[in-house]
């Protein structure tokens, strides 16, 4: 600014004095040289704090000032002065200046904390520091399941009736899927939108928002996505494809549409896992739920876990109907006990489906209840007819294996993964349907804690992608929590505890120290996933959760 002022003064002198006199020349050189000296001082002071882009206008003005000062006083000098003024106007930042109050506030925030003052007037000089406002916890209660039956099997029946789908649940989910499908077709006309639901969305669950019961998947060709996202993906074409970036961009565009125009609420994103997704809440304007209990759902583009999960349940349910009920029961227990949230380093719902089917294949003492996946239509079609195993025989109707109750199967499931499964030497593979070591194509996932201790996470093979380990999302703390919950359930079942105690929502051990209140208050916090000081150990990887039953 100093140099520009000098240039303008010199230009006015030349305009006002057509005859170049010695006094004018001397006055010009005095203004220019003194201004350059001050500019050098300013640049030296700001040089350590300005980047190259910020200091560029000052450098250009300095160069112009050198030419103006050294050239003889003629028309060239005046031209350079005008050019310098124009450059200053063009290169001046266009953003408005911050008010002085904002600058002082920013400086105060960046300043180091003042040392405590001493003396008789210290109390008067010290500012009164207001304590931070206490975080307001949500007050949406979780309805505890009230069982009228006294025996374990009777309580199991009541729970399944409560979490099973109803006509009202079907209406709500169908309306949600139709609304999302209509919005997606406005962005991607050729996309196919499918919905999957694992349980009654009205049934309360401690981690109902973290692990939604509904999955909505949009499937569209890569070329169509690139064509519709050409503004976001200018460098991609049919031969240069990064599937993950295309998925993320498509999810962002769809999420912007749903949130900004249709009133959906954004809950969280999960882009670090193998299947990117976002969790949204349905708007109250659709008439689905209420202000205090909106329907959460996961939305993704071109993902397969939800579809594969639904295919497995559908195919095996035709052979053994109990597989659907047992899967729903195990997932409800895993969600309520906090070991089904993959973003926190636990197994995703799809992995729990694999564990249930694998147990029914190899873990029932009375005999195998389910065949390998390769014997089924979907498995033979996707994995190849050459690998079909035809020597499996279904249990005879009326036999002990065929008449096992759901309560017995659930207790056996817990006992099998507590005592009968060695994850160091065995992998869960429903594709093979037999106990065997992990194949070489299935990578082991080693988890490590902060102290450097390591352990092997469960090896769970994705039957439709044998090289993918569904246990790769687990953290060290997630592995410990899984063992802890399995041993707790096995201990309770062995002592004859009721189902209400078994599925009691999990509360962190230090919650009483950080938050005083009843168990209902802790459950309300868990239901809404409110951020706070209570956290698990840092997780290593994140993956997306998936749904269960095809809608």
Can you describe this structure?
It is a single chain. By secondary structure, the chain is of the alpha+beta class. The chain contains 19 helices and ten strands. Strands 3-4-5-2-1-10 form a six-stranded mixed β-sheet, with helices on both faces. Strands 6-7 form a two-stranded antiparallel ribbon. It has a two-stranded antiparallel ribbon with strand order 8-9. Residues 95-103, 114-141 and 511-551 have low confidence and may be disordered. A hairpin with a 2-residue loop joins β8 (461-462) and β9 (465-469).
Number of helices: 19
- Rg over CA atoms, rounded to whole Å, is 34 Å
The CA-CA distance between the termini, in Å, is 68 Å
Major β-sheet profile = 6 strands, mixed
Provide the fold topology.
Layout (H helix, E strand, L loop, with lengths): L1 H15 L5 H25 L5 H19 L4 H17 L8 H11 L11 H4 L26 H12 L3 H21 L4 E6 L16 E6 L2 H7 L14 H20 L2 E6 L6 E5 L14 E6 L3 H13 L4 H15 L12 H14 L14 H7 L22 H14 L26 E3 L5 E3 L4 E2 L2 E5 L6 H19 L4 H4 L8 H4 L4 H10 L20 E2 L1
Parallel strand pairs: 2-5
Antiparallel strand pairs: 1-2, 1-10, 3-4, 4-5, 6-7, 8-9
Quick gist of this model?
The chain has 551 residues and is of the alpha+beta class. The protein has helices at residues 2-16, 22-46, 52-70, 75-91, 100-110, 122-125, 152-163, 167-187, 222-228, 243-262, 305-317, 322-336, 349-362, 377-383, 406-419, 476-494, 499-502, 511-514, 519-528, and strands spanning 192-197, 214-219, 265-270, 277-281, 296-301, 446-448, 454-456, 461-462, 465-469, 549-550.
